[in-house]
C-alpha cells in the first residue's frame, strides 16, 4: 500500500512541480480573472494527467505489476487517481463555469477580452488554428465532463452490480478521448515548448492509445486463452462452484495469482477469480472455487456446465508467497482460502524449510472442501488451524499472534474480508511487525 501511496503523491507533486516551472499561480497583475486563467490551466493539466495514468492502468499492463506489487494494487491506484482527477476536474469546472454564473448574477464584471497576439514563428499557424477550435473544444469538454462525472459517481456506488459497473466504466474511455481533444486545444500554447508540455504530450498519447485498447476490447488480448470446462461441482452450503477447466495453450501460473474469466460469446464482462490449484503442465487443468457474491456469480452454477467454452485472461497478481521469512502465517476467511489451496499443492510437490501455519475461519463450508484442505495440509507439512465461527468463537488477532515464534522473522499472508485484514495488520504492526511483511490481496476491483 505504501508504494501506491508514494506513486500517487509522486504524480501529484511531479506534475505540479513541472507546471510551476512553466507558470506562476500568482500572476501579475493579480486579479480574479488572471488568477482564474492560471488555475484553470493548472487544474486542467493535473486532471488530464491523472486520467491518462488511470487509463493506462485500466489496460491491466502486466509489466507494471512488479512496480505496483500486483494488479490488485494497480486497480487501487487507478481508483485513487480517478478520485483525484474528479476533485481537480470539479475545481476546473467551477472556475470555468462558476465564474460565468457569478458574472450572470452580477457578482463579477468580466473584463474586456484582448486579442491574443501570435508570434511570427513556425508555430504561429498551428497556434492560430488551435485558437479557432477553442469554442468547439470548450463545448466538447463540457459535455465530456458531465459524462465522466456521472460515470465516476456510478463507479463509486458499491450497490451498483459489478457487471453494470464494468459496462458503464468502459465509456469513461470515450469521455477521456473527448477531453484529450479539449486539452490539446486549450492548454496554453507556450507550455508545449517546456517540460510540462512534453510530459503532458507523452501522457496524452499513452492515455489515448490505452483508451482505444479499452474501447475495442484489445486490452489483455495477447494473454487470453480458450478452455473447456472439465467439471463443475456445486459447493454445498456455501453457495458456490468448484470449477476445473482444461486450457491446452495455458502458459502456467503461480499459486496466489488470479485470472479474468468469462464464457465464450457471453455478453458479460470477465470477472476475476483466484486459482485454487497449482499449475500442472501435464494435465493443463486449472481450477477455481467461486462463491456466489453477486448477481452474476449467483447464476454461475446454473450457467456454466461441463464442456462449455470459457476465455481465461491472465495470470495476474503478486500474492505469490515469495519471501525469505523463517515462518509464514496464512490467514483466510470464506472463499479467500483458494490461493492457499493452490500453494498447498505447490508445497506438496517441492521441499521447503519454512514453518507455515494456516488459519482458516469460516461460517459455513463445503465438507468435501474441508476434507481436501486437511489432506493437502498434511501432504504439504503445514499446521492447519480451522475455526468455524458458527460453532466456535471468532478468530482474533491474539489467536494468530500466539503462534508466532519470532515476529521479526515472520511474514503474514491474508486473503478474505477486508475489514478483518485491516484490523489484523494494525494489531501486528503495533506489536512491531514491519508493514511490508503483511501481504493482503486487495480483491475489490472497483
UniProtKB/TrEMBL annotation:
Superkingdom, natural source: Bacteria
Single GO term (MF): metal ion binding
Gene3D superfamilies: Nucleotide-binding domain of ferredoxin-NADP reductase (FNR) module, Translation factors
Membrane topology, as annotated: Multi-pass membrane protein
Main subcellular localisation: membrane
Cofactor(s) needed by this chain: FAD
UniProt gene name: hmp
Lineage: Bacteria, Pseudomonadati, Pseudomonadota, Gammaproteobacteria, Pasteurellales
InterPro entries per UniProt: FAD-bd_8, FAD-bd_FR_type, Fe3_Rdtase_TM_dom, FNR_nucleotide-bd, MRET, OxRdtase_FAD/NAD-bd, Riboflavin_synthase-like_b-brl
Keyword annotations: 2Fe-2S, FAD, Flavoprotein, Iron, Iron-sulfur, Membrane, Metal-binding, Oxidoreductase, Transmembrane, Transmembrane helix
Protein name (Swiss-Prot/TrEMBL): Hmp protein
Amino acid at each position: 500500500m505504501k508504494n501506491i501511496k508514494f506513486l500517487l503523491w509522486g504524480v501529484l507533486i511531479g506534475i505540479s512541480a513541472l507546471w510551476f516551472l512553466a507558470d506562476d499561480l500568482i500572476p501579475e497583475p493579480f486579479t480574479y480573472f488572471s488568477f482564474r486563467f492560471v488555475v484553470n490551466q493548472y487544474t486542467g493539466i493535473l486532471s488530464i494527467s491523472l486520467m491518462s495514468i488511470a487509463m493506462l492502468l485500466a489496460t491491466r499492463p502486466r509489466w507494471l505489476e512488479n512496480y505496483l506489487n500486483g494488479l490488485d494494487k494497480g486497480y487501487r491506484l487507478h481508483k485513487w487517481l480517478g478520485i483525484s482527477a474528479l476533485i481537480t476536474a470539479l475545481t476546473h469546472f467551477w472556475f470555468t463555469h462558476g465564474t460565468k454564473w457569478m458574472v450572470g448574477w452580477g457578482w463579477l464584471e468580466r473584463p474586456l477580452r484582448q486579442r491574443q497576439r501570435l508570434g511570427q514563428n513556425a508555430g504561429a499557424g498551428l497556434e492560430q488554428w488551435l485558437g479557432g477550435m477553442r469554442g468547439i473544444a470548450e463545448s466538447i469538454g463540457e459535455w465530456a465532463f458531465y459524462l465522466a462525472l456521472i460515470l465516476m459517481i456510478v463507479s463509486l456506488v458499491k450497490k451498483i452490480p459489478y457487471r453494470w459497473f464494468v459496462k458503464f466504466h468502459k465509456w469513461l474511455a470515450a469521455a477521456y478521448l473527448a477531453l484529450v481533444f479539449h486539452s490539446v486545444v486549450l492548454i496554453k500554447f507556450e507550455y508545449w515548448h517546456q517540460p510540462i508540455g512534453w510530459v503532458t504530450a507523452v501522457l496524452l498519447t499513452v492515455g489515448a492509445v490505452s483508451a482505444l485498447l479499452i474501447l475495442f476490447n484489445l486490452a489483455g488480448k495477447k494473454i487470453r486463452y480458450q478452455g473447456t470446462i472439465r467439471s463443475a461441482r456445486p459447493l454445498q452450503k456455501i453457495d458456490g462452484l468448484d470449477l476445473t477447466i482444461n486450457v491446452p495453450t495455458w502458459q502456467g501460473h503461480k499459486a496466489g495469482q488470479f485470472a479474468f474469466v468469462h464464457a465464450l460469446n457471453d455478453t458479460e464482462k470477465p470477472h476475476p477469480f483466484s486459482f485454487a490449484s497449482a499449475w500442472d503442465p501435464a494435465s493443463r487443468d486449472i481450477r477455481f472455487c467461486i462463491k456466489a457474491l453477486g448477481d452474476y456469480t449467483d447464476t454461475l452454477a446454473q450457467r456454466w456446465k461441463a464442456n462449455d467454452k470459457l476465455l481465461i485472461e491472465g495470470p495476474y497478481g503478486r500474492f505469490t508467497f515469495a519471501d525469505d521469512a523463517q515462518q509464514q502465517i496464512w490467514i483466510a476467511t470464506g472463499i479467500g482460502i483458494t490461493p492457499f489451496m493452490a500453494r498447498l499443492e505447490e508445497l506438496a510437490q517441492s521441499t521447503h524449510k519454512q514453518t507455515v501455519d494456516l488459519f482458516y475461519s469460516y461460517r459455513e463450508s463445503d465438507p468435501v472442501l474441508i476434507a481436501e484442505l486437511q489432506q493437502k495440509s498434511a501432504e504439504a507439512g503445514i499446521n492447519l488451524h480451522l475455526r468455524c465461527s458458527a460453532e466456535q468463537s471468532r478468530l482474533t488477532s491474539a489467536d494468530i499472534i500466539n503462534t508466532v515464534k519470532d515476529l521479526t522473522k515472520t511474514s503474514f499472508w491474508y486473503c478474505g474480508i477486508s475489514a478483518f485484514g485491516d484490523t489484523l495488520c494494525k494489531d501486528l504492526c503495533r506489536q512491531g511487525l514491519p508493514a511490508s511483511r503483511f501481504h493482503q490481496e486487495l480483491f475489490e476491483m472497483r
